[in-house]
Amino acid sequence: MKRPVRSILLIAASLSALAFGASVARPPPTGSGWIEYKYYDSSNNLVGARLIDCTGIVSTFGVSQGRVEVEQGPCF
After folding, report:
1. Per UniProt, which keywords does this protein have (predicted)?
2. Residue 62: which pLDDT band, with cuts at 50, 70 and 90?
């Protein structure tokens, strides 16, 4: 009886962490802000980027792999 409860709690905690991680990098609605993803390799060299501007235009370069940093800002 104890084991199924523990499994359910573990699954719930995992899903909560996953949902939180996904919400942090979620793009803002078009017109309200911009978001930029920068990708770095294991030597901390910038290897790619993805920018969604205030009009919704997506610009990319390089690869979308490695450590990612996310920046967001408002549209003026």
Report:
1. Signal
2. very high
Read off the pLDDT of residues 13-24 as tens digits, 9 standing for 90 and up: 665 544 444 445
Beta bridge partners of 70: 37
Measured from the Cβ of residue 40, the count of other Cβ atoms closer than 10 Å reads: 16
More confident call, 74 vs 31: 74
Phi, psi torsion values for 18, nearest 5 degrees: -65, -45
3-state secondary structure string, the chain? CHHHHHHHHHHHHHHHHHHHHHHHCCCCCCCCEEEEEEEECCCCCEEEEEEECCCCCEEEEECCCCEEEEEEEECC
